[in-house]
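Schema walk-through. Below, the input block comes first and the output block second. Nothing else is stored per chain. Lengths vary across the set, and this one has 301 residues.
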Amino acid sequence: MVTLPTNRLTILFADIAGSTRLYDTFGDLHARELISDCLSQLKTVARENDGTVIKTIGDEVMCTFATPNHAADTARKMHEEISFDPKMVHANIRLRIGFHHGEVICEPEDVFGDAVNVAARMVDLAKSDQIITNKETLALMKLNLKRRARIVDRTRVRGKNGVMEIHELIWGKPELMTMSNSLTEEMITSLASEKDFLQIRYLQQRILVDHERPILTMGRGVANHLIINESLVSRMHARIELQRNRFMLIDQSTNGTYLKIQDEDPRLLRRDTIQLKGEGLIGLGQKVGINDPMAVRYRVL
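--- output ---
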């Protein structure tokens, strides 16, 4: 009997949510082109992050990674890649991603086994814009990723005894990055134990930016992390990027971005970049004061 090699790998499935809608909306040819383009981008992201693309199955791509950390980072980047591609945004293409780490049987161009079946179940449980894994896989991941996970369900998985605890990994979508107002400053500080961490506050939202989530976009468009639906705000108005351990505010708008750093005078950015220091206020398209509801407050921790 031939014995096939086995290995412990993380299996990731990324699926285009509701792809049948694309055929109804755009017709067969255009829908097929959109799906092909999306899958091509997902495969590129996987390969750029040390993943192995195993195959595509309809509107889904299957990849393997050496560790769950690699898979989690790639899942986030896949979501971001599609969320900020204008063509994908126009077609309202969104992803569902699930992964699981376990032993698989390896063939030259495929992998098999119970771990693959569990990973497939994870993506089945995912909703649009979600990344889903389970308690066993989460336990193998680094601390800063565990901090960004939350339990969403307990369910039975075919072939497994008992109930499996299902977790969602938060990434950059507004409803997922936004933190509960019940968080204390001590909890914020504990999350900021790593170097280079920025907190954004707008109305009732708190948004975190760090090495795991190094880009935050602001504007009127629905693809932004922080959506500010005001007449002076451009569709993609401004962005904050973590570049070489510095948080940079980048204006890309029509009306400019106003920045007030602590006690300094406000300054206007027009298609320009400036480093965020300390704490202060950001106004999209207009000057803002400390009590202005349009004020975007930032603090570098």
